[in-house]
């Protein structure tokens, strides 16, 4: 009787799982720990330190895509992305859409007055309006659609040759900013095009991080170099941070993705190097594993918690600082806001997942992302 060969189960990469947990913590920090009057040194430093976590998240997306590509089939891949990414995105968009319709001025809806069905289409295809962080979803969909091309180029051994050019693009094509107030006076069509441009700019800007993630997944032995040359990476990270703060303060030019590239390599190197000790530290590893499992769900809902926190306690998104006393108050306030948002996000998601399970929903991931 012929024996059926069973393929070995794919290795679970604990250091990438930990990385995913840390990345979502940084993303939430970027949205909660904002303080200092715009244009001041304090504001620029806070912006440089706490924002830019998206770069890490995209790196992980590229890494995991390549790591799981051995069984890649384009149609199946897109179906899974529809089920595990797009559907929970649409479902978790509902609170934001309701807020856009019921509190358009407070929540920030530049499409107020447009046909409601058209507004929903605008919200879902841009992400930025109804749930600010989820602009990431329309952008990452572009990467999903190009998945087959990436793997073909990788097999032809040409994909990673594009990395130097992609990094030059990241350096010299910084992310653009967009807020509802920037669109005053524009037609609805012009506003929508502004958001589409924002999405496309993000794709172009972050392509280097996605392909870099694929590179290190395909060449895992190279990760050791990130730890070996850690002091050089730390120096370059700090140098690029200082330069970015200076340029932002004096010329309103900012690109904190550059320093986050080196932060990404450092975190990757340290986590892989200390993977065994981290696994042995059961309390930490289990805690960060819990956060990592809920990372995508946290990404979907944390902006709503931030909004509610700010409304309840009458706190602005960016806490003003005029003196040292204000600084101490601001740091304490954003610190509290950060931990409250993390804890409530996890709590709400955990309870929702349990509730859905009790209602016999087999795949809760399609609803809340976990």
Helix content: over 70%
Uncertain regions: pLDDT < 50 for 5+ in a row? 1-7
- Helix-strand topology string: HHHHHHHHHHHHHHHHHHH
Strand content: under 5%
Largest sheet, in brief, is:
none
> How would you state the average pLDDT, rounded?
94
Structural class by helix and strand composition:
mainly alpha
Number of strands: 0
Number of helices: 19
Apparent shape:
globular
Radius of gyration: 21 Å
Calculate the terminal CA-CA distance, rounded to whole Å: 42 Å
Can I get a quick summary?
With about 375 residues, the chain is mainly α. It is built from 19 helices and no strands. Helix 1 packs antiparallel against helix 3 (about 55-65) and helix 3 (about 55-65) packs across helix 11.
Structure, explained:
This protein is mainly alpha-helical. The longest helix is centred in the last third of the chain and has 35 residues, at about 325-360. Residues about 1-5 have low confidence and may be disordered. The protein is globular. It has 19 helices and no strands. The two termini are about 40 Å apart. The chain has helices at about 15-30, 40-50, 55-65, 75-90, 95-100, 105-110, 115-125, 135-145, 145-155, 165-170, 190-220, 225-230, 230-250, 255-275, 275-280, 280-295, 295-315, 325-360, 365-370. Helix 1 (about 15-30) runs antiparallel to helix 3 and helix 8 (about 135-145) packs across helix 11.
